[in-house]
Specification:
This protein has 228 residues and is an alpha/beta fold. It has one domain: Rossmann fold (3-Layer(aba) Sandwich), CATH 3.40.50. It is built from six helices and ten strands. Strands 1, 2, 3, 4, 5 and 6 form a six-stranded mixed β-sheet that branches. Helix 1 links the parallel strand 1 and strand 2.
Length: 228
Amino acid sequence: MSGNRKLWFWWSSGKDSAWALHELMQQGSYQIDALVTTLNKEADRVAMHAVRRSLLEKQAAVLNIPLKIIELPHPCTEQDYADAAAAAVNEAVQEHISHMAFGDLYLEHIRDHRLELIKDTPIEAVFPLWQRDTKALAEKMINAGLEAYITCVDPNQLDKSFVGRAYDHSFLNDLPAAVDPCGENGEFHTFVKNVPSFSNSIDVVVGETVERGGFYFADILLADGVTH
């Protein structure tokens, strides 16, 4: 039973978030009160993943978990982000949230940043996937039915032709050896359309690819045309 273990999950809309949350939901040790996501206020999309708000809202709906959006200015300075994150943490403390969970895999500086956010609060951090073997994890997620698309590629680390592709065994087989199978070093980002914890798969299509700020982005659209 979850008891008073109330948790906010920092949700990116991508595969690692989706799988980490799935594992927490299977454990049943926490009451998951919200998905917390940062949006680029100007673009109305998830930061770096470039996922539209409408898709993010659909994910929250099929998970039946409330969505809590942190809007970030563009451009966003480190101080802008820190202020917005601090406000969210203060709100969590007021709502008696006891835990915050993150989908990070092995980057120590990112983990340290997460811990810094909550260091002076009673909130504890949870990292369900920390130090998992990323090749084994990637295979496990796909074999379990996770479905995702590549929304962003850093062409300095991975060829732009990978953007817009499905995250599947074929994708993994085609990755250069230097690229992490989960993209933990920022090589690529994803949008998840289905995972075992979703009540149903999200019907999407892959739209146009554009280059912005040195990255390549594929626009993922709801198949019914609702793309606020």
